[in-house]
Amino acid sequence: VGSGSAVSLSRQVQGTGGSSAVSKCSAAARGYFQDRFLRLLAGRRRRRAPLIHRGYYIRARAVDHCVQDFLLKTQSLPRTQILSLGAGFDSLYFRLKDMGLLHHTVVYEVDFPNVACQKATLIKGMKELSALVGDTGEEGLGAITFSGEDYKLLGVDLSELSELERILEEAGLNNEIPTLFIAEVVLTYMENPRSDALIQWAAEHFPQACFLLYEQVHPEDPFGQVMQQHFRQLNTALHSLAQYPDCEAQQRRFLGKGWTECSVMDMNEFFTCCIPEDEQQRMQTLEPFDEYEEWHLKCSHYFVLAASKGMEPSWTPLLPSMTVPRHAGPVGMAGSVPAAVCARLSGIPGLRRYGHHSVLIKPNVILTTGGFGEEDGQHCRMRNFQVLSKQAGYWEAVCVTHNIPDKRWGERLYHTVSCLSDTLALVVGGRTSPSSAGLAMLWLKFPKTCDASGPDDVAVELVSLEAASEAALLRWRHSTTEITFKGEQYLFVYGGRSALEPVLGDWYFLHTPELSYTAIAVEGPVPESRHSHSACSWKGGVLIAGGLGAAEQPLGSVFLLREFGRGFQWQTIETHPPLVPRYSHTAHVHEGKLLLVGGVWFHASSVPGVTVIDLMTGLCLDYVINVEHLEWPLMLHNHSSIFLPNEKELLVIGGGGNCFSFGTHLNPEPVSLSLSSILISH
């Protein structure tokens, strides 16, 4: 690499540091963590989205957890030191000093020379910062841009190991005392031989040391591909991922380079195991939030690792060994399901959306409404309805005109649509923004005369119910299922969430078509509250599977609500092996088998494909989706799916979401999954 391109590359990497300082600052300003120094160091102030706040919250918690643990376990020792690699504009030293945690610890920070100079200038120019360091008044010498008694700021390129070693020695770093190395999304920007050499150098030169690493993982799944693409576009490729694609590979890396202990966990595991429940709840209620899928996917693509060597046994590890069963154990796959794009449905923007709902309004005619997606080249909440109809074996798309009396009723996400006849459907719930109340019910009326290609216009009317009844149904991420009781048709509205309740566990029976509330007795074990679950009609009752429960944890339970005596009864369906907990999937029933499609789970080693549960025996089999014929990442959450039993074909429409700070991914076109090989009729 010529020096010119090396300089431009270092500038790009520095850009990621500046951007992360601004994000941390925004999260601190919203109360995610306490840090009064960030705003002094970050420079620019920008308010970030709640999803970004959560991402930087979990990162800050993971680093703090390990740093404070190191300081606590070594507090009786005369001297210790912390070496922060690629520290950027981080405020770690100032926070620790302010909390009185640095009585016998010196903090060394290393970054590119121009970053270190900028930071030194900032510190000298700000009383609040310089007073804490107790500036010795020495001018920064060469690479040592700032030197206080317990704080040294060094400008040196980390990939130049011999130069780094020389300057650290000059600054007074002592190889003989316990040392904590911190690398927070730093090593991955270096070529692997150089980052490996740095890890090995630290182990070889420091007899008593700990190493804290926080960075990305799982490059090959759909979210990982979007993440990699983002960093490539910034010209800051993530080098570690190809060689060290998962937590186990990173663990082997450290153990093979001279470290004797090494524990590692992804951020879903860290959040569940290392953050107390009351603190989890405090964080979850700081801002209106409804991007659970992206939050959990972000957390499964970052890990924290703590390695150590030569430390007293009582001092290690900085991270607990996994006390809960590891999420990451591979899910055994029974086979695969081929995915193919639909020949005539490419390039239709109205089909690129998520959080929408699709329903079969008559054989071979599918209506898709709502969601967030692409309209006129812009990302927005979708107002257009889209109809797909199958003609001579091919799906064709038609955009439908509809007269929404008020635009507020039209733009909704996470609603349900139930077809009551071939001319009438009911829309229940949904939301505009997560801070607003849910939306009122709508009738969708199709003309009687509509031909095989489906309606060319849809009349939309508000449903008039008493205010109290209406209020009960203001929810989203719920389910609405057709059931039969004593020969009469009802809609069963269950679960979801609302602006006030993060998760609901109640239900309502609506007698159709006049939508009167009916009280029907229900016995048996009540399912735990959930949203983003699946619900299917079966034998006059309803099957509920998975979902996201209280405390934002995925559920693996399956329940059947069936007619029993003078009412209904909940029954648990035991699955074996147990169903891997998931949410944001879709579901269908075919010949006594429950099919679950996609969703989000915490098993980082793979993404959910199609799961088949035999409702007679409880046998539960997972199938991976073979995407080799797709040219783009298939994100199977916030999608909709329609099952065509005669063809044993699943049509997946839309799906995707806002991938943390890496951009919004919308599946560009519908995908057909052929299930004939896994649904062999007996």
Describe this structure in words.
This protein is α+β, with helices and mostly antiparallel strands and 682 residues long. Among the domains are: 2-309, Vaccinia Virus protein VP39 (Rossmann fold), CATH 3.40.50; 479-615, Kelch-type beta propeller (Neuraminidase), CATH 2.120.10. 24% of the residues lie in helices and 30% in strands. It has an 8-stranded mixed β-sheet, sandwiched between helices. Strands 30-31-32-33-9-38-35-34 form an 8-stranded mixed β-sheet, with no helix packed on it. It has an 8-stranded mixed β-sheet with strand order 11-12-15-16-20-19-18-17, with no helix packed on it. The radius of gyration is 28 Å and the shape is elongated. Pathway: tRNA modification; wybutosine-tRNA(Phe) biosynthesis. This is tRNA wybutosine-synthesizing protein 4.
Descriptors for this entry?
single chain; 682 residues; alpha+beta; Rossmann fold; Neuraminidase; eight-stranded mixed sheet; elongated; disordered N terminus; EC 2.3.1.231; Ppm1/Ppm2/Tcmp; SAM-dependent_MTases_sf
Gist of the model:
The protein is an alpha+beta fold and 682 residues long. The protein is built from 16 helices and 38 strands.
Helices and strands in order:
Blueprint: H1 3-29, H2 38-42, H3 50-73, E1 80-85, H4 92-98, E2 105-111, H5 113-124, H6 127-133, E3 144-147, E4 151-155, H7 161-171, E5 179-184, H8 192-205, E6 209-216, H9 222-233, H10 240-243, H11 247-255, E7 261-266, H12 267-274, H13 277-284, H14 292-300, E8 302-309, E9 333-341, E10 353-354, E11 357-362, E12 365-369, E13 372-375, E14 378-381, E15 385-391, E16 394-403, H15 407-410, E17 416-421, E18 424-428, E19 442-445, E20 457-462, H16 467-472, E21 479-485, E22 488-494, E23 507-511, E24 516-518, E25 522-523, E26 534-538, E27 541-545, E28 558-564, E29 567-572, E30 586-590, E31 593-597, E32 610-614, E33 620-626, E34 640-644, E35 649-653, E36 656-658, E37 664-666, E38 671-674
Parallel strand pairs: 1-2, 1-5, 2-4, 5-6, 9-33, 16-20, 25-29
Antiparallel strand pairs: 3-4, 6-8, 7-8, 9-38, 10-13, 11-12, 12-15, 13-14, 15-16, 17-18, 18-19, 19-20, 21-22, 22-23, 23-24, 26-27, 27-28, 28-29, 30-31, 31-32, 32-33, 34-35, 35-38, 36-37
Helix pairs in contact: 1-3, 3-12, 3-14
